[in-house]
Write a structure and sequence with these properties.
mainly alpha; 2 domains; disordered N terminus; Arc Repressor Mutant, subunit A; Tetracycline Repressor, domain 2
Length: 230
Protein backbone atom coordinates (compact mmCIF):
# COMPACT_ATOMS: atom_id res chain seq x y z
CA UNK A 1 0.00 0.00 0.00
CA UNK A 2 1.37 3.36 -0.95
CA UNK A 3 1.71 5.93 1.79
CA UNK A 4 -0.46 9.05 1.72
CA UNK A 5 0.81 11.77 -0.57
CA UNK A 6 0.99 14.23 2.34
CA UNK A 7 3.42 11.92 4.16
CA UNK A 8 5.54 11.43 1.04
CA UNK A 9 5.79 15.18 0.53
CA UNK A 10 6.74 15.69 4.15
CA UNK A 11 9.53 13.11 3.85
CA UNK A 12 11.03 14.60 0.70
CA UNK A 13 10.65 18.24 1.61
CA UNK A 14 13.98 19.85 2.60
CA UNK A 15 14.03 21.89 5.79
CA UNK A 16 14.34 25.62 5.26
CA UNK A 17 17.69 27.12 6.15
CA UNK A 18 17.62 29.28 9.23
CA UNK A 19 18.98 32.71 8.25
CA UNK A 20 20.06 33.28 11.85
CA UNK A 21 22.12 30.09 12.08
CA UNK A 22 25.79 30.50 13.08
CA UNK A 23 26.96 28.86 9.84
CA UNK A 24 24.98 31.25 7.66
CA UNK A 25 26.18 34.23 9.72
CA UNK A 26 29.79 33.08 9.33
CA UNK A 27 29.35 32.68 5.58
CA UNK A 28 27.77 36.12 5.31
CA UNK A 29 30.59 37.73 7.27
CA UNK A 30 33.18 35.93 5.15
CA UNK A 31 31.52 37.04 1.92
CA UNK A 32 31.22 40.66 3.08
CA UNK A 33 34.89 40.70 4.10
CA UNK A 34 35.93 39.25 0.71
CA UNK A 35 33.89 41.91 -1.11
CA UNK A 36 35.49 44.70 0.94
CA UNK A 37 39.00 43.40 0.19
CA UNK A 38 38.16 43.10 -3.50
CA UNK A 39 36.61 46.55 -3.45
CA UNK A 40 39.65 48.20 -1.91
CA UNK A 41 41.86 46.65 -4.60
CA UNK A 42 39.58 47.64 -7.48
CA UNK A 43 38.98 51.21 -6.27
CA UNK A 44 42.68 51.70 -5.46
CA UNK A 45 43.74 50.50 -8.92
CA UNK A 46 41.05 52.11 -11.06
CA UNK A 47 39.63 54.95 -9.01
CA UNK A 48 35.95 55.34 -8.28
CA UNK A 49 34.88 56.09 -11.84
CA UNK A 50 36.94 53.31 -13.40
CA UNK A 51 36.05 50.60 -10.89
CA UNK A 52 33.46 48.05 -11.98
CA UNK A 53 31.08 46.16 -9.72
CA UNK A 54 31.39 43.09 -11.95
CA UNK A 55 35.16 43.10 -11.45
CA UNK A 56 34.80 43.46 -7.68
CA UNK A 57 32.38 40.53 -7.52
CA UNK A 58 34.75 38.43 -9.63
CA UNK A 59 37.74 39.32 -7.43
CA UNK A 60 35.74 38.37 -4.34
CA UNK A 61 34.44 35.16 -5.86
CA UNK A 62 30.95 36.35 -4.97
CA UNK A 63 27.63 36.59 -6.72
CA UNK A 64 26.98 40.15 -7.89
CA UNK A 65 23.47 39.97 -6.49
CA UNK A 66 24.93 39.27 -3.06
CA UNK A 67 27.16 42.31 -3.42
CA UNK A 68 24.14 44.50 -4.06
CA UNK A 69 22.26 42.77 -1.26
CA UNK A 70 24.97 43.48 1.31
CA UNK A 71 26.15 46.91 0.16
CA UNK A 72 23.39 48.46 -1.93
CA UNK A 73 25.15 50.04 -4.90
CA UNK A 74 28.60 51.06 -6.09
CA UNK A 75 28.57 54.32 -4.14
CA UNK A 76 27.59 52.62 -0.89
CA UNK A 77 30.19 49.89 -1.42
CA UNK A 78 32.86 52.55 -1.95
CA UNK A 79 31.82 54.25 1.30
CA UNK A 80 31.98 50.90 3.10
CA UNK A 81 35.48 50.30 1.72
CA UNK A 82 36.63 53.73 2.93
CA UNK A 83 35.12 53.22 6.37
CA UNK A 84 36.71 49.77 6.65
CA UNK A 85 40.11 51.14 5.58
CA UNK A 86 40.08 53.92 8.17
CA UNK A 87 38.70 51.56 10.79
CA UNK A 88 41.54 49.12 10.18
CA UNK A 89 44.30 51.65 10.86
CA UNK A 90 42.46 53.05 13.87
CA UNK A 91 42.09 49.54 15.33
CA UNK A 92 45.82 49.01 14.84
CA UNK A 93 46.59 52.23 16.69
CA UNK A 94 44.37 51.27 19.61
CA UNK A 95 46.03 47.87 19.79
CA UNK A 96 49.37 49.60 20.45
CA UNK A 97 48.17 50.38 24.00
CA UNK A 98 50.41 53.44 24.07
CA UNK A 99 49.38 54.49 27.57
CA UNK A 100 51.57 51.73 29.03
CA UNK A 101 54.75 53.27 27.55
CA UNK A 102 56.65 56.39 28.51
CA UNK A 103 56.01 59.37 26.17
CA UNK A 104 59.11 58.90 24.02
CA UNK A 105 58.50 55.18 23.56
CA UNK A 106 54.81 55.79 22.86
CA UNK A 107 55.53 58.32 20.12
CA UNK A 108 58.24 56.08 18.67
CA UNK A 109 55.75 53.21 18.42
CA UNK A 110 53.04 55.38 16.87
CA UNK A 111 55.36 56.73 14.17
CA UNK A 112 56.68 53.25 13.34
CA UNK A 113 53.20 51.75 13.22
CA UNK A 114 51.94 54.48 10.89
CA UNK A 115 54.93 54.13 8.59
CA UNK A 116 54.65 50.34 8.49
CA UNK A 117 50.91 50.42 7.90
CA UNK A 118 51.35 52.45 4.72
CA UNK A 119 54.26 50.24 3.68
CA UNK A 120 52.35 46.98 4.24
CA UNK A 121 49.17 48.31 2.62
CA UNK A 122 50.17 50.27 -0.50
CA UNK A 123 46.51 50.14 -1.62
CA UNK A 124 45.68 52.49 1.28
CA UNK A 125 47.56 55.57 -0.01
CA UNK A 126 46.15 54.88 -3.48
CA UNK A 127 42.63 54.65 -2.09
CA UNK A 128 43.06 57.93 -0.22
CA UNK A 129 44.45 59.44 -3.41
CA UNK A 130 41.26 58.39 -5.18
CA UNK A 131 39.10 60.08 -2.56
CA UNK A 132 41.17 63.25 -2.78
CA UNK A 133 40.67 63.27 -6.54
CA UNK A 134 36.95 63.10 -5.73
CA UNK A 135 37.49 66.11 -3.43
CA UNK A 136 36.42 63.97 -0.46
CA UNK A 137 32.83 64.04 -1.69
CA UNK A 138 32.09 60.60 -0.23
CA UNK A 139 33.82 61.25 3.10
CA UNK A 140 31.65 64.34 3.50
CA UNK A 141 28.61 62.07 3.62
CA UNK A 142 30.08 59.71 6.23
CA UNK A 143 29.55 61.00 9.80
CA UNK A 144 31.29 57.93 11.28
CA UNK A 145 34.66 59.09 9.95
CA UNK A 146 35.07 61.97 12.39
CA UNK A 147 34.19 59.74 15.32
CA UNK A 148 36.93 57.32 14.25
CA UNK A 149 39.58 60.03 14.36
CA UNK A 150 38.63 61.73 17.64
CA UNK A 151 40.21 59.04 19.86
CA UNK A 152 43.45 59.30 17.88
CA UNK A 153 43.65 63.04 18.47
CA UNK A 154 42.95 62.48 22.14
CA UNK A 155 45.61 59.78 22.31
CA UNK A 156 48.27 62.05 20.79
CA UNK A 157 47.23 64.90 23.07
CA UNK A 158 47.72 62.68 26.10
CA UNK A 159 51.16 61.52 24.95
CA UNK A 160 52.32 65.09 24.37
CA UNK A 161 50.95 66.25 27.72
CA UNK A 162 52.67 63.39 29.55
CA UNK A 163 55.89 64.24 27.75
CA UNK A 164 55.57 67.91 28.65
CA UNK A 165 54.89 67.06 32.31
CA UNK A 166 58.01 64.88 32.29
CA UNK A 167 60.05 67.71 30.79
CA UNK A 168 60.94 65.85 27.58
CA UNK A 169 58.40 67.32 25.11
CA UNK A 170 57.36 70.82 24.26
CA UNK A 171 53.81 71.70 25.27
CA UNK A 172 52.73 73.94 22.36
CA UNK A 173 51.89 71.09 19.98
CA UNK A 174 48.75 70.87 17.87
CA UNK A 175 47.89 67.13 17.87
CA UNK A 176 46.19 67.34 14.47
CA UNK A 177 49.19 69.03 12.86
CA UNK A 178 51.48 66.51 14.50
CA UNK A 179 49.53 63.55 13.15
CA UNK A 180 49.46 65.05 9.66
CA UNK A 181 53.26 65.24 9.82
CA UNK A 182 53.55 61.66 11.10
CA UNK A 183 51.26 60.36 8.36
CA UNK A 184 53.02 62.40 5.68
CA UNK A 185 56.40 60.87 6.51
CA UNK A 186 55.09 57.43 5.58
CA UNK A 187 52.43 58.32 3.01
CA UNK A 188 54.72 60.30 0.72
CA UNK A 189 57.44 57.67 0.83
CA UNK A 190 55.10 54.84 -0.12
CA UNK A 191 52.94 56.68 -2.64
CA UNK A 192 55.99 58.06 -4.49
CA UNK A 193 58.33 55.11 -4.05
CA UNK A 194 58.47 54.22 -7.76
CA UNK A 195 59.22 57.72 -9.03
CA UNK A 196 61.68 58.59 -6.26
CA UNK A 197 63.58 55.34 -6.86
CA UNK A 198 64.10 56.36 -10.50
CA UNK A 199 64.90 60.01 -9.77
CA UNK A 200 67.53 59.27 -7.14
CA UNK A 201 68.66 55.94 -8.60
CA UNK A 202 68.02 54.12 -5.34
CA UNK A 203 65.82 51.16 -4.57
CA UNK A 204 63.56 52.72 -1.97
CA UNK A 205 61.75 49.39 -1.59
CA UNK A 206 64.97 47.75 -0.38
CA UNK A 207 65.11 46.66 3.25
CA UNK A 208 68.04 48.92 4.15
CA UNK A 209 66.40 52.01 2.63
CA UNK A 210 63.06 51.28 4.30
CA UNK A 211 64.71 50.82 7.70
CA UNK A 212 66.71 54.02 7.25
CA UNK A 213 63.60 55.96 6.31
CA UNK A 214 61.60 54.61 9.25
CA UNK A 215 64.37 55.53 11.69
CA UNK A 216 64.59 59.01 10.19
CA UNK A 217 60.82 59.49 10.48
CA UNK A 218 60.97 58.63 14.19
CA UNK A 219 63.95 60.90 14.75
CA UNK A 220 62.33 63.84 12.97
CA UNK A 221 59.16 63.61 15.07
CA UNK A 222 61.03 63.20 18.35
CA UNK A 223 63.44 66.04 17.54
CA UNK A 224 60.48 68.32 16.85
CA UNK A 225 58.80 67.38 20.10
CA UNK A 226 62.00 67.91 22.07
CA UNK A 227 62.69 71.31 20.55
CA UNK A 228 61.88 74.12 22.96
CA UNK A 229 59.55 76.73 21.43
CA UNK A 230 61.23 80.01 20.54
Amino acid sequence: MSEPSSVAVARTRQPKADPSSPKRSRNSAKTKAAILVAGRAEFAERGFEGARVDAIAERAGANKRLLYHYFGNKEDLYRAVLLDAYGEIRRGERALSLDQYDPVQAMDRLVRFTFRHFLANPWFPRLLGTENIENARFLKTMPDIKALHSPLVGQITTIVERGADAGVFRRDVDPVQLYISIAALGFFYVSNMATLSVIFDRDLAGVAMVQEREAQAVQMVLDYLRTKPS
